[in-house]
Amino acid sequence: MKKEFNSALTSKLHKVGLSDKEAITYAYLLESGGAFPSTVAHETGLNRTTVYKVLTTLSVKGLVTEYEKRKKFFYQAENPQYLEKYADMQVSLAKEAKEKLGIIMPLLDGIYKSSSNKPVIRFFNGKEGILTIYEDHVSGESKYEMLAFSNTADLLPLVDGEFKQNYLKRKAQAGITTRAIVPFDSRTIEDEYSAFEKRLHLEMKHLAEGEFPFKADLTLYAKNKVSIINFNEPHFVGIIIEDETIYNMIKLFFELVWKEL
């Protein structure tokens, strides 16, 4: 059974880079002056096989010493100053790894950018996550046409006026125009856009009353992004898909519906 011999010390050792089991083992050896693996296992509550692995790792790191005592291996903690040397070594290795990464980064970046068939997908939860999606709609500076299947009636009461006005203002400044297909009763959207009507160039078509009700928003924006938001309470969720092929496929679907309304 595991004994509480110095939880504060093990916690601090964990923070300087040792794993939980390494911290427990090193702390015990430091306080006890040394022990056989079987004793370490008994006193710390760690599995004996695990203790052997941990002792080997600590030995490689230069933090414990192994020698033979009564025809068995006995382990002692090294001087704590070796922890500082170990930390210095980790810093040195990290710097070396960063330098090597810098050399191959252009290659990795090129491979990543050339992988055109790999969409980027991000997930968002809660009201704050949904607002983050709307922020992304207006995060760029390029002019584009936003296309949307939208029913934001359940969202608008949750968003303060300042956010709505800032969102529409940024759309206007970027020259983002909008075409939207909305449920018949979504007149509130037009009210929100009225103050910026000339600059936003909002066009809306309404689905017949009672047909295709939905509490969601699907928006195509920035010429290669699609956001999908579920407004059904109590869990608001949404995703952003960044992929030109998916964007164009959904845009084709939108244009077909737009043409028929």
What Rg, in angstroms, do the CA atoms define? 30 Å
- State the secondary-structure class: alpha+beta
Beta content comes to 15-25%
The low-pLDDT segments are none
Largest β-sheet summary: 7 strands, mixed
Number of strands: 9
Helix count, per DSSP? 10
Strand order of the largest sheet: 3-9-8-7-4-5-6
CATH topology of the largest domain: Endonuclease, Chain A
The CATH homology group name of the largest domain: Endonuclease Chain A
CATH C-level class of the largest domain is Alpha Beta
Overall number of domains: 2
State the helical fraction: 40-55%
Q: Based on Cα principal axes, name the global outline.
A: elongated
**Mean pLDDT across every amino acid position:** 84
Order of helices and strands: HHHHEEHEHEHEHHEEEEH
Structural features, described:
By secondary structure, the chain is α+β, with helices and mostly antiparallel strands. It has 2 domains: 7-82, Arc Repressor Mutant, subunit A, CATH 1.10.10; 120-260, Endonuclease Chain A (Endonuclease, Chain A, 2-Layer Sandwich). Helix content is 50%, strand content 20%. The strands form 2 sheets. Strands 3-9-8-7-4-5-6 form a 7-stranded mixed beta sheet, with helices on both faces. The protein has a two-stranded antiparallel ribbon with strand order 1-2. Helix 1 (7-15) packs across helix 2, helix 2 (20-32) crosses helix 4 and helix 3 crosses helix 4.
